[in-house]
Design a protein that fits this description.
CATH architecture of the largest domain: Alpha-Beta Barrel
Shape: globular
Strand content: 15-25%
CATH topology of the largest domain: TIM Barrel
Number of helices: 13
Helix content: 25-40%
Largest sheet: 5 strands, parallel
Distance between the termini: 18 Å
Number of strands: 14
Strand order of the largest sheet: 1-2-3-6-10
Radius of gyration: 21 Å
CATH class of the largest domain: Alpha Beta
Number of domains: 2
Order of helices and strands: HHEHHEHEEEHEEHEEHEHHHHEHEEE
Length: about 350
């Protein structure tokens, strides 16, 4: 979570040599046994501690005088020079703020062509009550250095947990049930936990649901799109089979769309999209693509030397039912589950960069 690290921001504000900043990032990754660097609201969590309640990409931090663009540019370059496989993982500025389409695209361009990965997109423009997903997807399609995970929301009760205390403070009045907590973490980052219930008859929630699916379906290259619900923020990862069916079955998707707030459908293009994902597409966005993005050479494929983490499914026209109940699950070649019955609980490992 280097984008709000106090020492990093101090060094950046003091115009320290880039090599010194890069080496500090490398030391942080190595000493913490990390797999990647994530930036949550670059500079914004720190700014919130100085009572600054918003920080756009080119807006200056009230205390350090640096901008989120400078944070993103420095960290993307550092990770590229350090040869970290996964690009800088970015939760953008102004996430959840209506009309933040411009901030999201400016965040992509802050990388200046270097690899960058965006998570928990923001694309709704509630001033016009419409989806900006097509513009986001087109921006991703036009920038081969950009990868994304979608953070699809799923209707129902969940809890949102984020290092973006600025965003969670803004979301606290919408907590369901009416409980929430925000806290500092070692004065370097933050955390906000806010329970939330996504409702089909909420226009805002309906648009959020639509935007996620539109980004999936408008994105051209499945190798640059990873499946997530940003567990637990958009919904639990156990809802992936439901999400897969939404992507593979247009008639089912249209049925679900008809259940939503009436104005949401007219404010989006989802009903017009005929694309249905194939099983190959699903294999890429849920397995092969994320493994490649993380630099995990032994996973995401069935080639020689792979870890033999394999799920076997019985073909079923109801893709949600199919992916909910695998016939066999193998972990490192060992059969650990058959038809929902757990047979073994092997101990896994924790990948990190050496």
């Amino acid at each position: 979570m280097s984008g709000n690290d106090k020492l990093f921001l101090q060094m950046l504000a003091a115009n320290e040599d880039f090599e010194r900043l890069r080496d500090y990032v490398g030391w942080t990754i190595g000493s913490s046994k990390a797999l990647d660097v994530k930036v949550v609201n670059p500079g914004g969590i720190s700014a919130f501690k100085f009572n600054q309640h918003s920080l756009d990409v080119d807006e200056r931090h009230v205390h350090y005088g640096i901008t989120p663009r400078e944070v993103l540019k420095t960290l993307t370059r550092a990770l590229t020079e350090l040869r970290v496989p996964h690009p800088l993982h970015v939760h953008a500025s102004n996430l959840g703020v209506p009309g933040n389409l411009e901030s999201t695209i400016k965040t992509m361009d802050a990388a200046e062509g270097l690899p960058i990965h965006l998570t928990r997109y923001g694309a709704e423009s509630l001033r016009k009550f419409s989806s900006g997903a097509r513009a986001i997807a087109e921006a991703v399609n036009a920038r081969p250095n950009v990868t994304i995970d979608v953070g699809q929301i799923i209707f129902g009760q969940t809890v949102t947990a984020s290092g973006d205390t600025m965003m969670q403070f803004r979301n606290a009045p919408m907590a369901r049930p009416r409980k929430w907590v925000l806290g500092d973490i070692e004065c370097d980052a933050g955390c906000g936990v806010v329970p939330f219930r996504y409702r089909e008859q909420s226009l805002v929630n309906a648009l959020q649901w639509i935007i996620g699916l539109e980004i999936f379906l408008f994105a051209d290259d499945p190798w640059r799109v990873s499946t997530t619900t940003d567990h637990p923020n958009g919904g639990p990862f156990t809802s992936y089979p439901h999400l897969i069916r939404l992507l593979m079955d247009k008639s089912f998707r249209d049925e679900q769309l008809d259940k939503l707030h009436a104005d949401a459908k007219t404010a989006s293009a989802l009903s017009e999209i005929t694309r249905e994902f194939s099983l190959y597409d699903i294999a890429i966005i849920t397995r092969a693509g994320p493994a490649k993005l993380l630099g995990l050479k032994g996973r995401g494929h069935l080639g020689a030397g792979a870890a033999a983490d394999i799920a076997v499914y019985r073909d079923d026209a109801d893709r949600e039912r199919m992916f909910t109940s695998p016939a066999f699950v193998f972990k490192d070649g060992e059969l650990i589950a058959r038809d929902g019955t757990l047979l073994a609980t092997p101990t896994g490992g924790i990948p990190f960069i050496t």
